[in-house]
Amino acid sequence: MEAPFALYVHVPWCRHVCPYCDFNVYASSSVPETDDVRAYRGELDAWAARAEWSGRRPETVYLGGGTPSLLSPSAIEAVLDAARRLGLREDAEVTLEANPGTLTTERLAGYRAAGVTRLSLGAQSFQPALLRTLGRDHTADQTRAAMESVRAAGFGNVSLDLIFGVPGQSLAAWEDDLARALALAPEHVSAYALTWEEGTPFDVWRARGRLVPVDDDLESAMIDAAAEHLGVAGFRRYEISSWARAGFESRHNTRYWDGTDYLGIGPGAHSFCATPGRRRWWNLRLPHRWRDAVAARGTAVDGEELLTEAEARADFVITGLRRLAGADIVEFERRFTIAVHAAFPQLAHLERDGLVEIRATRLRLTPRGLRFADTVGALLV
Asked: Fewest CB atoms within 10 Å of the CB: 21, 198, 285, 374?
């Protein structure tokens, strides 16, 4: 049987664009749903006819953005029907990202009937001042109401996204956010450190002194607080920014970290195929250009790159180290026919510094290494 893969669907629309976001998103009060769905279906059908995907079945679908919950349940159903023609497994994990202010019980019931099995809610914070700083267009009360609607619609697999390290955020405010999130009893929590992405309004405001980043010691204390509070509540940290109750780890995201192939459709979506050729490619970013390309030729690929042997090795190890389980060195040696220490002589130095370790068949970050994951990654490139 051909190896399965992960399917990503990018929805680029938001009611407005948050000032810290550098994703391929566009503000729109009305989503061109009919045109977009036609393009999604056309793109999926075109890839289904390609030899490299023949006989392969997607085992996860992730509808991300942007704000996929701006699409109606019937639109989501149409996209998933096209994925089923691609061979979507019956037991597939199907995740829909949603913003709290876009949800009703009726709409959520429609998503569930369409085949969505998991929701990821962008709560980000429960502090009104921090939500304003982040440019979010929902309130803490809307997040709580959304969780009530999610449960009423029958969803039993829900993730909450939180952001820490926000300018003006105290440790007490972050601990309050964690407590409020846990009170809503999600199955999964993603806790992301704010990143200052080049070209975003946040980056400009920092350069002008309008925003002041939290200091490194405070950010470290926030990471420790997340680990403590979530751990006590029964969540297991399985990736640098991800905690889950047993059995509720994100299957889709795990595919990115373990080197599984993934196919991305939609404006600006990225894809990866390990064989043949260890190839990455990406779609046209502008929605109208993406739609026109799909109508003209079935796909909308804008560029691609073939990874060198060294790039492919580094990619496999660095993404694998995001997981607390670590990178599978047996699979590494099978793929690249070289021992991991021979491929990365610098590992000996990282081991001596207590940043990485090998346990059984896994190369993984130590607790100290988790604090310096970006540095470790840079040293392995």
From this structure: 198
